[in-house]
Design brief:
Blueprint (H helix, E strand, L loop, with lengths): L10 H49 L1 H10 L1 E4 L2 E4 L9
Antiparallel strand pairs: 1-2
Length: about 90
């Protein structure tokens, strides 16, 4: 006994090609997940770099202040001399 309702015109196409359609759907879903992970990791790396920079400036704040006053100082263990600085004018 047959179906009372007429089959949709694309039903046979879907039935014949369902494995291919499933693979295509999974690939699209995987690409979306990879894109989301890459964007998230990029944001995490940038945020981590920014936090490290803030931490460095916080730790070296006294040395940076000394540089603005003496024109000769050490930042992160490296001797720094400001070329266009005259301590007599400060």
């Amino acid at each position: 006994m047959g179906s009372i309702l007429a089959a949709a015109p694309y039903e046979e196409f879907v039935r014949d090609n369902s494995p291919v359609l499933a693979v295509i759907f999974c690939l699209i879903l995987a690409l979306l997940v990879v894109r989301l992970v890459v964007k998230t990791m990029t944001r995490v790396v940038l945020l981590g770099t920014l936090l490290l920079l803030v931490l460095f400036v916080y730790v070296e704040r006294d040395n940076i202040q000394e540089c603005t006053q003496a024109c000769d100082c050490a930042i992160a263990g490296i001797d720094v001399e400001l070329p266009s600085c005259d301590p007599a004018n400060i």
